[in-house]
Amino acid sequence: MLDTGVMLECDVLVVAVGSDPNTEWLAGSDIDVRDGVLVNGALQAVTTEGAALPHVLAVGDVARYANPLFDDVARRVEHWNLPTETGKRAGQVLAAQLGDDPVAAAEVAARPFAPLPSFWSDQYDMHLLAFGMTYLADRSELVAGSLDDECVVKYFRGDQLVGVCGLGMRSAVQAYRARFPAPVAAR
After folding, report:
1. 14: which residues sit within 8 A by CB, 6+ positions away?
2. Under 8 Å between Cβ of 131 and 117
C-alpha cells in the first residue's frame, strides 16, 4: 500500500533503505556532518559556519552537495557512478591546488560540479537502468512499453525532467540521457 492509498499487487517487493554515512570520526571537527559531509562544488568540506576547507575533500556517497542540474539543495547520492565522478572531480581540484598557479586552482575549484546520477542492475532476465533523480519527481509518465513488461518511465518535477527509468528497453532508455546536459566534471 502506497502513501497515496494505491495498492500495488506483486509477488515480491524489494526495498532499498539506503546507508548511513560513517562520519562519527569527524565529531568535534567543526565540519558539517549532518547526513554526510557537506561539500561545495569543489568537493571541499564545509564547516558548520559555512566556510570551505580547501584541503579537506569528501568523495563518494558520504559527500553531500548541491547538483545544479536539479537545484541548490545539498544531498548525498548513492548511485553507482558517483564514487567515480566525485573521485575525478576531487583529483582535478587537488591537482590544481598542487600546481604553481593559484589563479588556475581557484578557477578549477569554482567550476560547477553537476554529474548525472545513474545506476543499473541485472536481476535474472530483467535489466533495470535509471539516471537522474527520480525521487525528486512529482509526476511520472510511461513513454514506452507497458508496466507489465518492458517499459520506460520519465519523471518530472513540474515541467523539468529529473529522471528516466527503464525495465529492459536499454536503447530507448539511453536515448533520453541526451536530454540532460553532459556532466560538468567530464568536460
Report:
1. none
2. yes
